[in-house]
């Protein structure tokens, strides 16, 4: 789902609110999650999941095109762990082969 689709769905479900206001709400929420992750703070949305930052150590990688070894710097990457309720909804009576 795209950000614009999320705003449109919220606007459809809340006709008393202006789409511009809903877009601002979505921007603020995502901005706050981003800011928290930048400072290394974990963000937990109960029933949905948790966002955190994981550190990847420097390593020697391989260029897939040339096969040449390259040094990959250490970096931080975002990580999402789905909550128990989200996992249950995704797996409730659904055969993994049907996805």
Radius of gyration: 19 Å
What is the CATH top level name? Few Secondary Structures
**Roughly how many Å apart are the termini?**
17 Å
Helix content: 25-40%
How would you characterize this protein structure?
The chain has 99 residues and is α+β, with helices and mostly antiparallel strands. The protein has a single domain (3-90), classed as HU Protein, Chain A, CATH 4.10.520. 39% of the residues lie in helices and 27% in strands. The protein has 3 helices and 5 strands; from the N terminus they run H-H-E-E-E-E-E-H. It has helices at 3-13, 19-38, 84-91, and strands spanning 43-45, 49-56, 59-62, 69-72, 75-82. The strands form 2 sheets. A 3-stranded antiparallel beta sheet has the order 1-2-5. A two-stranded antiparallel ribbon has the order 3-4. Helix 1 (3-13) packs across helix 2. The chain is extended.
Keywords:
99 residues; alpha+beta; 3-stranded antiparallel β-sheet; 5 strands; 39% helix; 27% strand; extended
Set down the secondary structure blueprint.
Elements: H1 3-13, H2 19-38, E1 43-45, E2 49-56, E3 59-62, E4 69-72, E5 75-82, H3 84-91
Antiparallel strand pairs: 1-2, 2-5, 3-4
Helix pairs in contact: 1-2
């Amino acid at each position: 789902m795209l950000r614009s689709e999320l705003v449109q769905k919220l606007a459809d479900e809340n006709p008393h609110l202006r789409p511009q206001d809903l877009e601002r709400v979505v921007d603020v929420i995502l901005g706050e999650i981003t800011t928290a992750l930048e400072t290394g703070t974990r963000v937990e949305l109960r029933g949905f999941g948790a966002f955190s930052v994981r550190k990847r150590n420097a390593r020697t990688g391989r260029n897939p095109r040339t096969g040449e070894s390259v040094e990959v710097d250490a970096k931080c990457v975002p990580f999402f762990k789905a909550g128990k309720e989200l996992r249950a909804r995704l797996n409730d009576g659904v055969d993994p082969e049907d996805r």
